[in-house]
Amino acid sequence: MGICVIQRNIRMDMSKKNQTATRMKPSVTGSRAMAVACVLIFLTLLTMRDSRAEDARFTIIHSSNVGGYLYACPT
Amino acid sequence: MLGGLARRVSYVNSVRSAGGTVLVVDSGRLFRNIATDTDRKRSLARARVIIRAYTHIGVTAVNVGESELTHGLPFLRRESSQGFPLISANLVDPLKKIPIFRPFVITKAGAARVAFFGLLSPGTSSAIQKTAAGKFLVKDPVETAREMFTVLRAQADIIVLLSDLEPERERAVAGAVPGLHFIFGGREGRYDHAPVKEGQTYILHSSRKGMYTGNLQVTFTNASFPFRDDGYETRIAKKMSDLDHRLRLIERSRAIEEDQRMENAIRLINKQKTALKEELEKSRPSQSGNNRFLWTLIPLDLSRPEDTAVSEWIRRAGFEKD
Question: Is A63 in contact with B219 (Cβ distance < 8 A)?
């Protein structure tokens, strides 16, 4: 969607070629803002995908009631 | 024959060598109860061997249990100050009303922050009350667990209680603190091959006398989802298979001789099978998210090698097989 908006803005820029530089300025700024927004959205999506891929996998080894036993004992 | 400190250390090292993050924790009663021992010096030497071995394997947290207290607070304080990670959230100084040891430990396991806090039962034995009277207070475990949860939920993704509480107190804590993920217990030394689920909290015990070690494999994705027990369906399948086996035996006997008792037994088994199927179906919708775990009790049998360094420490300290 963002790309479409940029294209539309560029078309607008082209149609306004003959207009004064002062009137063109806000349109160019808008295009840039949209491009930055697109990059940000892309980066956010990329980060989300990465964090999902980075599941934490680990092991907890637990002991309880060892009672000071140093050697194996009869079951 | 099962167990042994050197075998335990060797097991931990073997899991570590397979790669990945490995955390080692103890729920308490790691040492022997020496309240009535006459040779105190030797009893403390035994505890020191265990401390050395657990330090060697990089233990993350050891909850102060009742038997640890029989070694006296000065001994425990000294070992704690030298880096042995003793924790207890409800063992407090009677005057200052602050914990004597660190109440919790937070450690990173991959992308997850894991918090361990420790609780001791207020029902300590009379022998300890007598020797340590006025030296410590044991705060209410449920109230302390609530306080700990409030502190830890902002700092950790997974919250684990290391418990030296009675099973009914563990259930009370799980009921009062719904966000608690796991309770590692074992005061009564139960052999529980399957986790006990209380609300969204799983309670895990690792038997006694160091015969077994608990192995919890965790996959963590998102703190907002509950954990799913990967062993659940396997256990239900095993129960179904056992029931099928019994059913086949009874039907074989029935082919030889008709008996009303056999009919009743078949009806009962079929009823149990239906209940298991329903249980399995009921559990499926709630198992959302990708957080999951697999709990296994590993027997430290004699086929496992012993860690040679630890065996040597035990031998040098003069402890013969007991």
Answer: no
Give chain A's contact residues with B (Cβ, < 8 Å).
51-52, 54-75
B137 forms bridges with which residues in the sheet? B92
Q: Looking at the DSSP assignment, which residues form a beta bridge with residue B106?
A: B115
Using CA coordinates, name the residue in chain A closest to B46.
A68
- pLDDT tens-digit map of B167-217: 999 999 999 999 999 999 999 888 888 999 999 999 999 999 999 999 999
Domain positions in chain A: 2-53
Q: What is the CATH number of domain B5-222+291-316?
A: 3.60.21.10
Query: Could you tell me the pTM of the whole model?
Result: 0.81
C-alpha–C-alpha distance, residues B47 and B41, integer Å: 10
Count chain A–chain B contacts defined by CB atoms under 8 A: 181
Q: What residues of A are in contact with residue B47 (Cβ under 8 Å)?
A: 68
User: ipTM for the complex?
Assistant: 0.91
With 0-12 / 13-18 / 19 or more C-beta atoms within 10 angstroms meaning exposed / middle / buried, residue B171 is: middle
Q: How many angstroms separate the Cα of A23 from the Cα of each of A7, A17, B318?
A: 19, 10, 93
- Domain borders along chain B are 5-222+291-316, 232-286
Per CB-CB distance under 8 Å, the chain A contacts of B227 are none
Chain B closest-CA separation from residue A48 CA (Å): 12
